[in-house]
Specification:
9 helices; OB fold (Dihydrolipoamide Acetyltransferase, E2P); 5-stranded antiparallel sheet; alpha/beta
Length: 251
């Protein structure tokens, strides 16, 4: 199994490499990269490894920025000394989150999880394809049960304007501007919604087409969205995502 390590501390990277070899002698570490820039360049020039071990705080910023610069198709196990990034990590291909110093038993458990997931999706590939192709009327979420004060209320999906992530929370805003806190990640919510109506415009926002009021050009070939209910911050679509967004709007 080919494994890539993204870690800016050489002693930590070497310790992880040895720990992986102790778990499974067939593991081959294809490279050790210490920065966002190095990782992005390598991933764009080489086939994806089977698995990536990725530190979060690198010498040139948080490793989440790698996902904004290039496509990562393989699973990722994040390694960090901090527990504050776990929610964001699981929005970026993460199958596990290991706290440093990494214990051998935790590493072995993470690798076993990877193997079980690989076996499951290999054995159930056709089921996965069928799930992706199932009709909207039978597969997509129609309502969200949310809490307001001491009560629970049901919000129809068509009445939702957008979802957004802020700090460690995910919020839902309806057409009336009411905000509700959800206990799911944006990635989990995205999988439950009809992509004919909802689109993940960037890492932070998942928007209903009916909430888009204006689309403006933005520097460096990006787009700027204006939505209703209005927001104080800008919703920017990256240059890499502009073409896909336009195709979605024209469907």
């Amino acid at each position: 199994m080919h494994v890539l390590i993204i870690e800016d501390e050489k002693p930590a990277a070497e310790k992880l490499r040895k720990a992986l070899m102790a778990c499974d002698a067939s593991i081959q570490v294809v490279n050790v990269l210490g920065s966002i820039q190095q990782a992005t360049a390598w991933l764009e020039e080489h086939p994806a490894p089977a698995l990536i071990f990725m530190d979060i705080e690198l010498s040139d910023g948080l490793s989440f920025r790698i996902f904004e610069r290039t496509t990562i198709s393989c699973p990722v196990i994040f390694t960090t000394a901090y527990d504050e990034y776990w929610q964001e990590a699981f929005e970026h291909n993460s199958i596990d989150y290991l706290l440093k110093p990494i214990k051998q038993v935790k590493l072995e458990a993470a690798l076993k999880k990877y193997e079980k997931l690989k076996q499951y999706f290999s054995a159930n590939y056709q089921n996965l394809v069928n799930w992706q192709q199932k009709p909207a009327e039978s597969g997509y979420k129609k309502r969200f049960l949310v809490k307001r004060g001491s009560d629970y209320i049901s919000i129809k999906t068509e009445d939702i304007a957008y979802f957004y992530a802020t700090h460690k929370l995910v919020c839902m805003v309806d057409n009336k501007g009411q905000k509700f806190i959800l206990d799911q990640s944006l990635s989990d919510i995205e999988m439950q919604l009809d992509t004919g109506f909802f689109y993940r415009v960037n890492r932070k926002y998942l928007v209903n087409m009916s909430a888009i009021r204006r689309i403006k050009t933005y520097p460096k070939s990006k787009l700027l969205l204006e939505v209703e209910p209005a927001l104080q911050e800008e919703i920017v679509i990256s240059q890499e995502n502009v073409t896909a967004f336009k195709q979605w709007m024209e469907q």
